[in-house]
Each structure stands twice: as structure tokens, then as C-alpha cells.
Design brief:
Radius of gyration: 14 Å
Strand order of the largest sheet: 1-2
Organism: Metapseudomonas otitidis
Number of helices: 3
Structural class: alpha+beta
Protein name: SAM-dependent methyltransferase
Strand content: 15-25%
GO molecular function, one term: methyltransferase activity
Helix content: 40-55%
Shape: globular
Keywords: Methyltransferase, Transferase
Length: 92
């Protein structure tokens, strides 16, 4: 949503509270819109931070639930590829 409206993600920090992972974003308006890919939307700039693998596992659970509602086709195939990528990152 932010990237499509001209915002750049300056920094992102993940944190855990009550057993759930959250993302805290610092965004700045830059006027340059772009279409983020699925991995950018799900992981942002969190890679390398403590808890990143657990954060990816949580995101992957949500993505798998979304995937169950999709009919066969290009979007479902793209989501399947994204699920596999998140599974790799969940094992970091």
C-alpha cells in the first residue's frame, strides 16, 4: 500500500509481543510510486534481524490461509512460489 502511494520504507523493525510478531515501519514520502513484489510486502527490511525466521513462519501461516481461498491459476501459482520462499527463510 505504501509503495503504491509514493512512500519509501526507510527502516523496519520486527518485535514480538504476546507470542505474535509485529512490524514497526518508518516510511517517508518520496513521490515515486512502485509496485512491490510479494516478498517485499511480506518481509520488508526485516531480513537479518533477531526473530526473522519466526516472523517469516508467522507470515507464511497467513499466506497459506490466503492460498486456500484461491482458485487454480496464475495468482495461486505465484502464491505457491512465495510460500516456498518463506519456508526457506523460516529455517534461517
Amino acid at each position: 500500500w505504501l509503495a503504491r502511494r509514493g512512500f519509501d520504507l526507510v527502516e523496519e523493525t520486527i518485535c514480538q509481543a504476546a507470542g505474535r510478531w509485529y512490524s514497526v515501519m518508518n516510511a517517508r514520502y518520496a513521490a515515486a510510486q512502485h509496485e512491490p513484489d510479494g516478498l517485499e510486502c511480506l518481509c520488508g527490511k526485516a531480513e537479518g534481524q533477531p526473530g526473522f525466521a519466526a516472523y517469516c513462519a508467522q507470515q507464511n501461516g497467513k499466506l497459506k490461509k490466503y492460498r486456500r481461498g484461491l482458485p487454480p491459476g496464475a495468482e495461486a501459482d505465484a502464491v505457491d512460489a512465495l510460500i516456498q520462499e518463506l519456508e526457506k527463510r523460516s529455517c534461517l
